[in-house]
User: Fold this.
Amino acid sequence: MGSSMGSSMGSSVESSVGSSVESSVDSSVESSVESSVESSMRSSVESSVDNLVESSVESSVESSMKSSVESSVVESSVGSSVERSVESSIERSVERSVERSVERSVERSVESLIERSVERSVESSVERSVERSVESSVESSVERSVESLISSHEECVLLSQLALFRTK
Assistant:
């Protein structure tokens, strides 16, 4: 009785643990990813802009301005052309750099969140599974002990009745 009950409970526990892990991971990942992605994107953009301003913008502005200013310093209308060219060049550089940095940061954040969520979900599911297994083992053991005690008690009652019968 105990072993057939244990194996069917084992299958059902495994199935339940599988479903529980999957739904727990899905919900944990969804909630964690949304808040972390926003925070990560914000810090990535700030960091990227700072880095970009320090390095690539300076060199880009210098090279654009040197070539543009040297070739068109004579005319005043050319000055506005140089300005537009420099602004355009800076905007493109900033956009590309920020885009790449944000993509890398989001990828790292999502991977990290998924990994942590899966670990937590698996740990939680394993703990629940072990608890259920221990409970089931204890229940089976107690059930067998009670059955054995009842059987021993019945034997004792029969022996005492037999002894009483012989003495009469």
Remarks:
- The chain has a mean pLDDT of 75.
- The two ends are 41 Å apart (CA to CA).
- Helices lie at 2-72, 76-167.
- Residues 35 and 41 are 10 Å apart (CA to CA).
